[in-house]
Specification:
5-stranded mixed beta barrel; RNA-binding; 8-stranded mixed beta sheet; single chain; alpha+beta
Length: about 600
RNA sequence: UCCUCAGUAGCUCAAUGGUAGAGCAUCCGGCUGUUAACCGGAGGGUUGUAGGUUCGAGUCCUACCUGAGGAGCCA
C-alpha cells in the first residue's frame, strides 16, 4: 500500500502513520506475537461458531466467538451493508489468478488417474500412512472423513465417499438455477477443489450466496465425478459451515484479481493466500526437506551452529550487534568508546553471518557435517538478490579437496532440482506458465547435463575473447563483475558453471593457498539470472600458511585461537561451501526477487510483520 | 551507499499548465452446470509530503519520504 494510503488510513484510525500492515483497511491490526487469534492454538472445535446462524446472530458480530478466540476480528464485523447484502443477490467473479490450472481427463482410467494425480498434486496426494492417521486420530486433530484437497484430487479417496474438507474460498460463481460453485483451497496443493452448493442447503441464501474470496469454510459432502469441464471430481455439498467471514470484502487486499508483487509485499501476512505465494511456500518446503534428505542419505550430520557469535568473522559483511546494554546510558571505557564488558556476554556479540567456522570444528571430528539455518548480514544492499536475513546451507567435508567439493555441490543441486520437479510438478507447472517460461525446462537441463567447470584464468580468457562490450574491463586479479558472471552463465555456457581457483587477493583468509601461491582453492557456482548461488573452497589446513594469510589480510589472530587449534590438533584437508536457499528458490521458480521467496523479507529499512 | 526511474480510486494505469478518467476489484440488478463467467448500473480521490513559480499546478522548480531496477558487497 502506498504511503499516502497508509497515512490516510492511519489518520482515520487516529494513530500515527506507520510502514506496517496494520494500516491496511479491513485487516486485523494484531500482528503475530501479539495477543490475537493468530496466536491461538485452540482446536477448531473450540473455536467454531455455532452451527445455526440467523441473520440476527451474524449481525451481532458473534460476540461469543470473538471472546473465545481472543480477538474482536475473529468473527465478522457485520455492517449494515452486509446485512443488506444478506437479503440481496450475489455477485460473480472468477479471476485469472485463481482459476484451476490442473485438470484430469475424465477419459483416463482410474489407475492412470491416480498415478497422474499424485504426480500433479504432490506428495500430499498420497494416501496418509496408517501411522499418521493413528496419530491424527489420537490427537483429535482430524476425523477419518476430513481430507486434504491434495488427497481428494490425487485419487486417494474413491468417488462416492463422504468427506469433509476445510479451507478458504477463492471464488464463488452462482447459477440462478439455484446452484453455486465454490473454489476451495487449503494449501495442500496448487489446485483448488470445486464445491457444488445446491440451493436446498439450509444456509444457502443467508450464507453461501455471500461467501467470497478469503472466507474460511468446512464443507461436508460426497465426492462425485464432475459434470463440468475443468476438473475430474468435485464435492456435492450436504453442509457448508462458515468458519470465518471476511469483514469487509471491499477492502480485503487479496481481491480476486492480478496484484503486483510490490503491492503484495506490503500485505505479506495475506499474500500466502495467492496462487503464487502458496506455490512458493510449497516449493520452499520441498527444497528444505530435500536438503535434509540428501545429506542424511549421504551420511552427513546436521550441526546446529550458533545464531549468536562473538567473533567478527572473516569479514563476510557487516554484522548486526546483539546487546542488552541501555542505549540511552551506554557504558563507556576510558577512551569514550562503548564498554561491552558490561554487556550480556561480557563482550561484543553479533548475529552470525555464516556457520562455516563453527561447522569446521565438527567436521574435523565427525567427517561429514552441514549446517542449515538463518544467517544475517547488515549490508545496505538494495537489490533483488539480497536480504538482511536469509537461509544458508553449508556442508563441510573432511578428507576432501576442491574437486570433491564441486562434485558435492553439483550432486546437491541436481538432487534438489530433481526432487522439486517430481514432488511439486503442480506448482512448477504454474511457474512455467505464469512466472518464467523456462522454469521447468532449464531445471531439467541442469539435472541432465554435467556442470561446466572452468578455472578463473580460463574464465578471464573467455571474457577477454568475448565480443560483448563490458562496462568493466576484465583483467587477471580483479573480481568478476555481475556482468561478467552473467555473460559466462547466460551466454557462454548457458547453464550453471563452476569457476575455480581465484586470485588470493580477492578471497578470504581461510581458503587454501594453491601451489603456485597466487591463487586459492575457491569455487563459485554461477547460475543464469541469479549469479553466484554457491560460494565455497577447500580450507587452509596448514597452520603456518593460515597464519601468513591472516597476517596478509590484516586480521588479528587472537579471536581465532580456537579456529587455529583445529589446525594444531589432527588437521586434515577439508572443504565446504555455502548455498543460498533464497537464490536457489529464485532460480527454481523463476521468481525474480528474493524478497518474494521468503515469507517475511527483511531488507534495509523494512522489517514489518 | 551510488546511479536511474516511479508515486493519481482498493489494485494496475491514463490525463498540452485550464472541470480528475479507464480497466479490474467491491456493491446492486439481469442471465447462465459455472470455471479469467457474461451483460447493465452504482459507490469510491486533500493526485506521497512540505515549500515555491503562476491568474491557475496531477503536470514546472526545490527538499524530503516511499518503492522499483541497476551497481557495489555477497549467498
Amino acid at each position: 500500500m502506498r504511503s499516502h494510503v497508509r497515512r490516510r488510513q492511519a489518520e482515520r484510525d487516529g494513530c500515527r502513520p506507520r510502514r506496517s500492515c496494520d494500516a491496511v483497511p479491513g485487516v486485523p491490526s494484531g500482528q503475530p506475537g501479539q495477543s490475537g487469534s493468530n496466536q491461538l492454538t485452540v482446536s477448531r472445535s473450540e473455536c467454531s461458531p455455532p452451527r445455526s446462524r440467523s441473520p440476527q446472530r451474524r449481525a451481532s458480530g458473534r460476540p461469543g466467538l470473538a471472546r473465545k478466540c481472543g480477538g474482536s476480528h475473529a468473527g465478522p464485523q457485520v455492517s449494515a451493508r452486509n446485512r443488506r447484502r444478506s437479503q440481496q443477490g450475489p455477485s460473480k467473479v472468477m479471476p485469472r489468478d485463481v482459476r484451476p490450472r490442473c485438470s484430469l481427463s475424465r477419459a483416463d482410467g482410474p489407475a492412470r488417474r491416480v498415478a497422474l494425480s499424485q504426480r500433479r498434486y504432490g506428495p500430499g496426494a498420497r494416501r496418509r500412512s496408517p501411522a499418521v492417521n493413528e496419530v491424527a486420530r489420537s490427537c483429535k486433530l482430524v476425523s477419518m472423513a476430513k481430507r486434504e484437497i491434495a488427497e481428494l484430487l490425487g485419487g486417494a479417496v474413491g468417488v462416492g465417499t463422504e468427506v469433509a474438507v476445510r479451507g478458504w474460498v477463492r471464488t464463488r460463481r452462482d447459477s440462478k438455477a439455484g446452484l453455486s460453485f465454490l473454489q476451495i483451497n487449503d494449501g495442500s496443493c496448487f489446485a483448488s477443489l470445486q464445491v457444488v452448493a445446491d440451493g436446498t442447503l439450509p444456509n444457502y441464501v443467508q450464507e453461501v450466496q455471500h461467501l467470497g474470496s478469503g472466507c474460511a469454510v468446512t464443507v461436508r459432502g460426497e465426492l462425485v465425478e464432475s459434470l463440468g469441464r475443468g476438473q475430474s471430481v468435485e464435492i456435492r455439498a450436504t453442509e457448508i459451515a462458515v468458519e470465518g467471514w471476511v469483514d469487509d470484502p471491499d477492502t480485503y487486499p487479496i481481491s480476486p484479481k492480478r496484484h503486483s508483487f510490490e503491492f503484495l509485499r506490503e500485505v505479506a501476512h495475506l499474500r500466502p493466500r495467492t496462487n503464487t505465494f502458496g506455490a512458493v511456500a510449497r516449493v520452499r518446503n520441498c527444497l528444505a526437506q530435500a536438503v535434509h534428505r540428501f545429506f542424511d542419505d549421504s551420511g552427513y550430520l546436521w550441526i546446529h551452529t550458533p545464531i549468536i557469535t562473538a567473533s567478527d568473522t572473516e569479514g563476510a559483511g557487516e554484522l548486526f550487534r546483539v546487546s542488552t546494554l541501555d542505549l540511552a546510558r551506554l557504558p563507556r571505557d576510558a577512551d569514550g568508546a562503548p564498554d561491552f564488558s558490561d554487556d550480556f556476554f561480557g563482550r561484543e556479540a553479533f548475529l552470525t553471518v555464516s556457520g562455516q567456522l563453527n561447522v569446521e570444528a565438527y567436521c574435523l571430528a565427525l567427517s561429514k557435517v552441514y549446517t542449515f539455518g538463518p544467517t544475517f548480514r547488515a549490508e545496505n544492499s538494495n537489490t533483488s538478490r539480497h536480504l538482511a536475513e536469509f537461509w544458508m546451507i553449508e556442508p563441510e567435508t573432511a578428507f576432501a579437496d576442491l574437486s570433491d567439493n564441486a562434485d558435492l555441490a553439483e550432486a546437491l543441486l541436481k538432487h534438489l532440482f530433481r526432487t522439486v520437479l517430481e514432488e511439486r510438478a503442480d506448482d512448477m507447472e504454474f511457474f512455467a506458465q505464469r512466472i518464467h517460461p523456462e522454469a521447468i525446462r532449464r531445471l531439467q537441463a541442469v539435472v541432465d547435463q554435467p556442470f561446466e567447470r572452468m578455472t578463473y584464468a580460463e574464465a578471464v580468457r573467455a571474457l577477454q575473447n568475448a565480443k560483448t562490450k563490458f562496462a568493466f574491463e576484465v583483467s587477471w586479479g580483479s573480481d568478476l563483475q555481475s556482468e561478467h558472471e552473467r555473460y559466462l552463465t547466460e551466454e557462454y555456457v548457458r547453464r550453471p558453471v563452476v569457476v575455480t581457483n581465484y586470485p588470493k587477493g580477492i578471497k578470504p583468509f581461510y581458503m587454501r593457498l594453491d601451489d603456485g601461491g597466487e591463487t586459492v582453492a575457491a569455487m563459485d557456482v554461477l547460475a543464469p539470472g541469479i549469479g553466484e548461488i554457491v560460494g565455497g573452497s577447500q580450507r587452509e589446513e596448514r597452520l603456518d600458511v593460515l597464519d601468513i594469510r591472516l597476517a596478509e589480510c590484516g586480521i588479528d589472530p587472537e579471536p581465532y585461537g580456537w579456529y587455529r587449534d583445529l589446525r594444531r590438533y589432527g588437521t586434515v584437508p577439508h572443504a565446504g561451501f555455502g548455498l543460498g536457499l533464497e537464490r536457489t528458490i529464485s532460480y527454481v521458480t523463476g521468481m525474480a526477487n528474493v524478497r518474494d521467496v521468503i515469507p517475511f523479507p527483511r531488507t534495509p529499512g523494512s522489517a514489518d510483520f
